[in-house]
Write a sequence for this structure.
């Protein structure tokens, strides 16, 4: 079903006037500085917390957002290094809070075996405005290649390159929400001058493998771990999830590097993008956070079993 967005002309990509109108409609709805930053700061007792950049959005909302990485201590070059990223899409709440919960509850137990690096909230303006895009109407999760236009993504790329570290595993924490159909996909079609056809939003958790470097066994390990916490999404009547063929229960594939996705930002041979459904009548916000943690734990246990 096509939904016409209220900004722009059908079939014509947005210019600066339309982007300015869109930005003028965005409102701060919650606080990164109250809800996320204190949790990051509290981790300094047990982890190394580094500021890797900032987003100078004073002209947009009167704020400059600091960007933080959280690292396990006793970083050793002979241990595998793993990356957990959250809040690439700031509106995807359990991605941010799942990354933080993993640090608060599980990360230390693994830090004697792996170097843990977590980027808990890559898009804090998106977190505050409950938004998929940054203020320039750019999706950070299509900007992790060398030509990407979102500063949120490029600052991550620069920070990771400066670490000179090879990664064994990268888990990128996301959600699929009802607002994908009601707001974000219609807005994207309007911005790009294309036609939007809504997906069926899957009820439940699923994961996205890399079509260019698939690791089905990793995805199965993640699904099995998450299934202990919340329900796994089932295919629609066409055997698909969000328009993509299901590869195995709860798993679809995307070509991550070709799309500039965050999960392509490292050289890790093991990657997965998690997708939780927070609007499900069968899942609470707490379950969504726990599902993200379970996904990371399932992936780590798989990695360590392979190393063992």
């Amino acid at each position: 079903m096509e939904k016409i967005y209220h900004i722009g002309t059908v079939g014509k990509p947005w210019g600066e006037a339309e982007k300015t109108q869109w930005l003028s409609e965005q409102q701060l709805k919650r606080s990164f500085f109250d809800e996320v930053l204190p949790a990051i700061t509290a981790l300094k007792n047990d982890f190394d917390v580094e500021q890797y950049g900032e987003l100078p959005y004073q002209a947009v909302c009167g704020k400059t957002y600091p960007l933080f990485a959280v690292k396990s201590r006793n970083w050793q070059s002979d241990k595998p290094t793993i990356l957990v990223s959250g809040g690439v899409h700031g509106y995807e709440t359990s991605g941010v809070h799942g990354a933080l919960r993993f640090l608060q509850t599980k990360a230390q137990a693994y830090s004697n075996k792996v170097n843990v690096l977590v980027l808990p909230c890559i898009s804090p303006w998106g977190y505050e405005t409950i938004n998929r895009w940054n203020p320039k109407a750019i999706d950070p999760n299509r900007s992790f290649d060398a030509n990407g236009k979102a500063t949120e993504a490029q600052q991550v790329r620069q920070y990771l390159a400066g670490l000179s570290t090879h990664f064994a595993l990268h888990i990128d924490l996301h959600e699929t929400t009802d607002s994908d159909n009601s707001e974000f996909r219609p807005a994207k079609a309007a911005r790009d001058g294309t036609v939007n056809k809504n997906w069926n939003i899957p009820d439940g958790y699923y994961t996205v493998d890399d079509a260019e470097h698939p690791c089905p066994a990793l995805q199965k390990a993640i699904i099995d771990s998450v299934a202990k916490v919340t329900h796994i999404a089932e295919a629609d009547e066409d055997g698909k999830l969000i328009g993509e063929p299901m590869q195995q229960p709860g798993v679809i594939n995307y070509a991550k590097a070709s799309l500039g996705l965050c999960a392509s930002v490292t050289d890790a041979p093991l990657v997965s993008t998690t997708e939780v459904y927070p609007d499900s009548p069968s899942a609470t916000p707490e379950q969504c956070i726990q599902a993200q943690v379970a996904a990371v734990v399932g992936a780590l246990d798989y990695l360590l079993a392979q190393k063992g």
